[in-house]
Design a protein that fits this description.
The complex is a heterodimer. Chain A is α/β, with parallel strands linked by helices. Helix content of chain A is 28%, strand content 21%. In chain A, the strands form three sheets. In chain A, strands 2-1-3-4-8-7-13-9 form an eight-stranded mixed β-sheet, sandwiched between helices. Chain B is of the alpha/beta class. In chain B, helix 2 links the parallel strand 4 and strand 5. Classes of the chains: A alpha/beta, B alpha/beta.
Chain lengths: 334, 628
């Protein structure tokens, strides 16, 4: 009997070449461990990436891997999945790769609902090209290309995904394997495009940009781990999110002693698109960061299923070209 | 000029009207009828870029030309002998194309002041004398159609829609053809429409036929009898280039015992391939319409990585977008077939017109040293074999392959002798090695290239114990690991060049299609100019010129004997629909002096244009001796 695989079995012989302290290391470890935990088969697993620091990921995963071109990984992954729907296809992209040059493809892989896991490593910067501001950089980000600070409004990856009609949207933090791993497992189980934004610390060009909610010391106050069917509580259950029916906005309330009863706190319903929108739109400065599975609508068919179901023969050859040539009017000479 | 007579060996007929007049349908049905009558033929649909340009304008004129003959027909014909014009704009645009003495059939109901204004015509051309040199037949077609369908209670505008069927009926009479096959076809075509649509069209068809037979027309126009063309025995069908490419790709899948995944994005004139392939599911073909050209190419490459034969197609502007991805497929050593249905350029250019101006793009158009095999189809039917050949090269050498066709080939139709699928060798590719737990050995086995083709084993996800990673970064020649090593990059660059050169070891020697293997003049063509060159050379040889015809299918690499072959002619004339791209290639690869004959008007070459060039470049003293 073969031994179950361990995280180590999902590592390759290649030397990992990210900067020391890069958040990518933690994500790599977490993915390797997660795949071992769920008993994934490396021979049936494919990692597809674009270009950027995050996109080196496939070289370090003992599975099939395709490091493609900038921004286009979703299109390659679609082709791979259509070619062989039995494969477990993972997509690795970043904020520049996925939302700038590849924004169009990300839109379509999501709205088509291709059965893949899409990990978008968001570090709010272009790392591999040495630190230019990215489409998720906050206004005022000083970078080699924006010495006076960036001026354009950033895109929110999860809001983009929801706008693209993604059926699975989740968030995690690079170094928080404890909550990231279950999110990745859920993404893998989801039949359709599972979008996971991972806050990733670029130690060289955008160090600690997420400290506002990532720092361990304040995490209970600054993070809210959402769970389907559970009230939206944080700060050890002493605070929660309540719907203000006048403004139709979520607001923070104290819970328990002297505060609101728990029954007034919104219960997380991951199938509720409106709630997902509210959670994604919470202002980072005054609200905790929602993490975990924010939105999941499992009923929609995945594109690869629908694609092959639309083909009467499921893509299999049932006829011959010799017969096909003779369809329509054929005449004889001689 | 002589009037056309019933004894003519071939006749060129052109139908022209508004893009909404159903001219293309009329033409293609007449072609179908020609096929069943046993004549040879070649068609050329010539339509505007606008879907429905304002009615009656010159830029909205759509035309369909057919050359039909009792002898071999190689082009859609230089100058029409018959023009059917549905309105003044169609007459204005097409009159300059006609042979003097040509028969001009006019729909007089459309010859009114309003339409003259729309077509920017000052005076009624029937009264200005400009039709003097032609045999003009005036028919109040619209009135006739309305009369014919009156009992069916169709609205005036619906009734007018049947004008093309009325004209078809008249033309069928002119050529002594049966209406039955057309009726069968129409019955199927309109099966899902309200019954009066079919009834109206059939009534119009019969009325047009009856009008021609019984009314004045029969007094003015003799019936033409274009006999049975002498063609090799066998089964035939009519086929367009787009159909032949699609069937050829399906055939390639069958020969390789692999399924085809075609990913495309709508573009004129390439879309027809996507349309045809999307109806070939039972042949193991699946189609994916991607979000853009880039995604289409990437999805096709992803499919190849995943184990299906990835195919993408486009026209010049779309190919430009796919270029980066094609470079990746080359670097990753993955098979891919890229079909380019060339159109008039640059930029958006002339989307519905034909050109051969993407040869540079295919051969040279990528960043860095990124050589790729390029082959070209010579005509509609030839697209079938060309598609098989492109796929064969892609799988044997594990490389992207360009298949060049063009707007003319894509849309033109002609009779095609059905091939016997047993005549084709199976398409092979490098077989995957055995599963191997020794990582070092596994990697080396995956990148162990065939010593003659340099194709690597096609290892695809799902295969046990062969997981590997690949990408666009330079890789070690033996292990496939990322490598920035200087000597390795040199070796990989040489390998990529040698691989494409190696294709020449597998392709047939260049043959001479007509004429001798040496002499004063060879006319060397590629792609869709084949037909015009064939007829021009055949005619010139009948007149005693010692001229040869050479059609190049393999553009890159060129056949190994081509250089020596072409050196054996005093002069090499290269007609092509661009500013001289094959000429450049021949100078580059063979260091050969060539004489370009270029045309970039969006229209195919005329036979006379090539004939004139032959006469100008083949000295009179070089005529073949009669005794030989």
């Amino acid at each position: 009997m073969t031994k179950p695989l361990t995280a180590k079995d999902f590592a390759t012989d290649q030397e990992v070449r990210w900067c020391p302290g890069c958040g990518d290391y933690a994500i790599l470890k977490c993915v390797q461990k997660t795949l071992a935990d769920v008993g994934a088969d490396p021979d049936k697993t494919v990692f597809v990436s674009g270009i950027g620091c995050s996109s080196r990921f496939p070289y370090y995963m003992n599975a099939y891997g395709f490091h493609t071109i900038h921004g286009r990984a979703p299109a390659f992954a679609t082709g791979v999945k259509l070619a062989n729907p039995e494969l477990d296809v993972w997509l690795v992209t970043g904020d520049g790769d996925g939302l700038s040059i590849g924004g169009n493809h990300l839109l379509h892989v999501l709205r088509r609902n291709v059965d893949t896991q899409i990990m978008l490593f968001n570090n709010e910067i272009y790392g591999l090209t040495k630190g230019q501001y990215s489409p998720t950089s906050r206004v005022g980000t000083r970078s080699p290309s924006t010495p006076a600070g960036s001026i354009d409004t950033p895109v929110s990856p999860c809001a983009f995904a929801l706008g693209a009609n993604a059926k699975f949207i989740a968030r995690g933090i690079d170094t928080d394997a404890k909550s990231l791993s279950p999110v990745l497992k859920a993404a893998r189980e989801f039949k359709g495009a599972a979008f996971v934004e991972i806050f990733q610390n670029c130690i060289v060009y955008n160090k600690d940009v997420f400290d506002g909610f990532v720092a361990k010391k304040t995490a209970t106050e600054t993070q809210i781990h959402v769970e389907h069917g559970q009230p939206l509580l944080f700060a050890g259950g002493s605070k929660g999110l309540k719907l203000n029916t006048q403004t139709l906005k979520l607001e923070i309330v104290d819970v328990g002693d002297g505060g609101a009863p728990e029954s007034e706190i919104v219960v997380h319903d991951e199938t509720n698109r409106t709630l997902a929108q509210m959670l994604i739109d919470l202002p980072m400065t005054s609200f905790p960061m929602p993490l975990g599975v924010i939105h999941r609508e499992p009923s929609a068919p995945s594109f690869d299923d629908a694609f092959w179901n639309a083909h009467a023969t499921k893509g299999k050859r049932t006829g011959t070209v010799a017969d096909a040539l003779r369809k329509g009017s054929v005449w004889k000479k001689g | 000029m002589a009037k056309i007579t019933p004894e003519d060996q071939s006749i060129v007929v052109r139908f022209a009207g508004d893009s909404g007049d159903g001219v293309q349908l009329l033409g293609s049905q007449f072609a179908e009828s020609t096929a069943l009558a046993g004549s040879d033929f070649s068609t050329f649909p010539d339509f505007p870029a606008e879907i429905r340009a304002p009615v009656g304008t010159t830029f909205g004129v759509s035309a369909f030309q057919i050359n039909l003959g009792a002898r071999r027909v190689s082009t859609a014909g230089d100058q029409p002998d018959v023009l059917v014009a549905f309105n003044p704009a169609a007459l204005k645009v097409n009159l300059p194309l006609l042979q003097k003495g040509a028969l001009v059939v006019l729909n007089t109901d459309a010859f009114n002041k309003r339409n003259f204004t729309k077509a920017n015509i000052a005076a009624d051309p029937r009264e200005t004398g400009e039709l003097e040199d032609y045999q003009v037949i005036e028919i109040d077609m619209s009135t006739q159609v309305l009369e014919a369908v009156k009992p069916l209670g169709l609205s005036k505008s619906d009734a007018e829609q049947s004008k093309n069927f009325w004209a078809l009926g008249a033309v069928l009479w002119m050529f002594g053809r049966s209406r039955d096959p057309i009726k069968d076809w129409a019955t199927k075509k309109f099966a899902k429409k309200p019954p009066e649509v079919l009834a109206g069209n059939l009534a119009a068809l019969d009325a047009g036929h009856a009008y021609a037979e019984t009314a004045e027309l029969s007094a003015e126009v003799p019936q033409f009898v274009i006999g049975d063309a002498d063609m090799a025995a066998g089964e035939y069908r009519s086929i367009t280039g787009a159909e032949a490419i699609s069937l050829g790709l399906a055939a390639a899948g069958e020969l390789a015992d692999k399924e085809i995944l075609f990913a495309g994005y709508p573009i004129t004139p390439a879309s027809a391939i996507l349309h045809h392939l999307s109806r070939m599911g039972e042949l193991g073909v699946a189609t994916f319409q991607a979000e853009d050209e880039i995604a289409a190419c990437c999805a096709a490459i992803g499919a190849s990585f995943g184990g299906k034969i990835g195919v993408t197609s486009s026209s010049g502007p779309g190919i430009a977008l796919k270029t980066e991805a094609i470079g990746l497929a080359m670097a990753a050593e993955l098979p891919l077939v890229i079909v380019n249905s060339q159109r008039g350029g640059p930029s958006t250019g002339l989307p519905t017109k034909t050109e051969q101006s993407d040869l540079y793009q295919a051969v040279y158009g990528r960043n860095a040293d990124a050589p790729l095999p390029v082959i070209a189809a010579a005509g509609p039917g030839d697209c079938f074999d060309a598609a098989i050949e492109a796929t064969r090269i892609a799988l044997r050498h594990m490389t992207p392959v360009f298949l060049l066709t063009d707007g003319y080939i894509q849309n033109a139709a002609g009779p095609w002798a059905l091939p016997n699928m047993n005549d084709y060798d199976p398409i092979l590719h490098g077989t995957p090695p055995a599963a191997n737990d020794d990582i070092e050995e596994r990697k080396r086995a995956i990148w162990n290239r065939d010593p003659s083709s340099f194709g690597r084993p096609w290892v695809t996800p799902g295969m046990k114990g062969l997981a590997y990673r690949v990408g666009g970064l330079e890789k070690d020649i033996e292990t496939g690991d990322i490598s920035y090593d200087a000597d390795n990059h040199q070796a990989m660059s040489e390998l990529r060049a040698r691989k494409v050169e190696a294709v020449a070891d597998f392709i047939p020697d260049q043959e001479v299609e007509q004429g001798n293997t040496k002499g004063p003049l060879a006319v060397v063509g590629w792609g869709s100019t084949h037909g015009a060159i064939w007829r021009a050379v055949a005619n010139a040889r009948e007149q005693g010129y010692d001229v040869a015809q050479i059609q190049i299918r393999y553009i890159n690499p060129l056949p190994k004997n081509l250089g020596r072959l072409l050196e054996s002619y005093d002069k090499v004339l290269v007609p092509e629909m661009n500013m001289g791209q094959l000429s450049t290639l021949l100078r580059d690869k063979l260091e050969l002096k060539v004489t370009p004959l270029t045309k970039v008007s969006g229209q195919p070459f005329k036979i006379t244009e090539i004939a004139d060039a032959i006469a100008a470049n083949c000295p009179a003293g070089a005529k073949v001796k009669a005794a030989e």
